[in-house]
Amino acid sequence: MAAQFLPTDLPKEIPEHAEHGTTAYEGIQVQTLLSWQAPGRPFRRRGKEYYISTLLIALLVEIILFLFSQYMLMVLVLSLVFVAFALVTVAPHNFQYKISTEGITIEDHFYLWQELYDFYFKHRDGADVLHIRTKALFPGELTITLGDVHREQIKPILLPFLPYRELVRKTFMEKSGDWLSKNFPLERVSKTS
Questions:
Q1: Residue 83 belongs to a domain
Q2: What is the mean pLDDT of residues 32-41?
Q3: In this structure, what DSSP letter does residue 26 have?
Q4: Which of 48, 94, 158, 178 is exposed most, by the fewest CB atoms within 10 A?
Q5: What is the pTM of this model?
Q6: Which 3 state secondary structure label does DSSP give 146?
Q7: Would the pLDDT of 159 be above 50?
Q8: How confident is the model at residue 60 (pLDDT cuts 50, 70, 90)?
Q9: Number of neighbouring beta carbons within 10 Å of residue 149
Q10: Do residue 55 and residue 144 come from a single domain?
């Protein structure tokens, strides 16, 4: 006789609750804890100096690649410059974010709490950003812009489900990017006080 293996992570049949829009599973109701709309990524308009600096650096790299007859790399550099210009020119559209007792919904993608690892906050391009790391290699990390929602409003909602990481060590790539942007800025940042 062969043993029959059943998947343990599949839920049993969930009966519909009497109220419309909620489901009940062993007395637990799925509730939306917080819902908001915010841009899909942090966005900041760039000045003319940014575009000129980027074009000059790309031109220098193109000349060096031409001297070494690396034509495919020249095409790659041009495509990267195009993508960089597209990202800083076109503002992102607003995404719908929702935190429920079952997980997190970003537009049409749903992530269960069991798929998520921990969370932390960063401030990038003038916006607060929530980073939620996943257990799976892909996507690896969910980046959620908070918009008008404050981080102290989200933190107590997430704490029962995920651990909060106060200090996150920067990776080598983040340290390198910070060093490059500090020592070789593509545009001057105006300090208003």
A1: yes
A2: 94
A3: T
A4: 48
A5: 0.74
A6: coil
A7: yes
A8: very high
A9: 18
A10: no
